[in-house]
Amino acid sequence: MSNIQVTRLTKVFDTATGPLKVVDDVSFNVDQGEFVCLLGPSGSGKSVTLNCIAGLLDMTGGDIKVDGVSVKERKPNYGYVFQQPRLLPWRTVEENLQFALRAESGRAAPDEAGRIRRVLELVNLAGYEKFYLHQISGGMQHRVGIARAYVRNPDLLLMDEPFGALDEMTARHLRSELSATWLRDKRTVVFVTHDIVEACYLADRIVIYTPKPTRIASVIEIDLPRPRVYGSSELHEIESRVLSVFERSMSEFAVAE
Ligand SMILES: Nc1ncnc2c1ncn2[C@@H]1O[C@H](COP(=O)(O)OP(=O)(O)O)[C@@H](O)[C@H]1O
Ligand SMILES: [Mg+2]
Fold first, then answer.
1. Which residue, by CA, sits nearest to atom 17 of ligand 1?
2. How would DSSP label each residue in 150-208?
3. What pTM was estimated for this model as a whole?
4. How many angstroms separate the CA atoms of 59 and 111, rounded?
5. Could you say which DSSP state residue 133 is in?
6. Could you report the per-residue pLDDT of 225-235, keeping only the tens digit for each?
7. Calpha distance 234→224 (Å, rounded)
8. Which of 8, 89, 134, 143 could bridge 123 with an S-S bond, Cβ 3.0-4.6 Å?
């Protein structure tokens, strides 16, 4: 499993109306096997940060090290989960996972069938190998998206609002499954969301972003045992704390504008 050090990350885009500073001097660490949520309003540079961690997007300033090596030198071994699962709809569950496994070498991976079976068990989809994507529900498709991120055995999982487009009941179910899956083998996770309740339910630690140009408003530890319970007084108390930091940072931004 990987650890991450984000040091003084700055990202400026050149746009038609001039430079746009999105991330402004952000530093945080993620420990090995830790579940960290990046929480911030829409447009605050959460996806940008995740793409910088993956080494997919160049930084304007600062550095990100994964296991002590700059992502500029070597891309980390990560699995990515998007808001839309981005699967191949005309292929089966199994074929989608094979496609991910073969993406690099172009050949069948060693013990391919075994890896696919184990990862489908992990996300509670055993027995669905031969189903086409259009034959399974949206929630199940999301589980295939998570299985795809796991199947190459990454040290690091990067998740970008994976449940953001789902109805709340399905999202709750998938969050509890993700939490249980994570507990079983403790990958390092960076999970992006704008949903306070989601962040409090999932995270060991929440890094709260201000609106852009983004800085860190606060970092909040969540030392609650799992499985966590929606609506419990402990969770409520943390949600209120996060909400007040969030609201303060939003109103400070409004004044600064
Ligand atoms: N390639 C790009 N060129 C210019 N601006 C970009 C680019 N990618 C993202 N941005 C801008 O950066 C800001 C943050 O984007 P993003 O990280 O996607 O926000 P979010 O926190 O919602 O994930 C937005 O204002 C967006 O318009
Ligand atoms: Mg985003």
1. 45
2. HHT--SEEEEESTTTTS-HHHHHHHHHHHHHHHHHH--EEEEEES-HHHHHHH-SEEEE
3. 0.94
4. 37
5. G
6. 999 999 999 99
7. 8
8. 143
Pick one of 3.30.930.10, 3.60.40.10, 3.40.640.10, 3.40.50.300 as the CATH number of 1-77+190-257. Answer: 3.40.50.300
Residue located via tokens 């339910």: 201
pLDDT tens-place string over residues 191-238: 999 999 999 999 999 999 999 999 999 999 999 999 999 999 999 999
Q: How far is the CA of 120 from the centre of ligand 1 (A)?
A: 33
- CB within 6 Å of ligand 1 — which residues? 13, 15, 20, 22, 40, 42-48, 212
* Residue located via tokens 């909040």: 220
Domain extents in the chain: 1-77+190-257
Which two tokens mark 108?
């069948």
d(CA 181, CA 183): 5
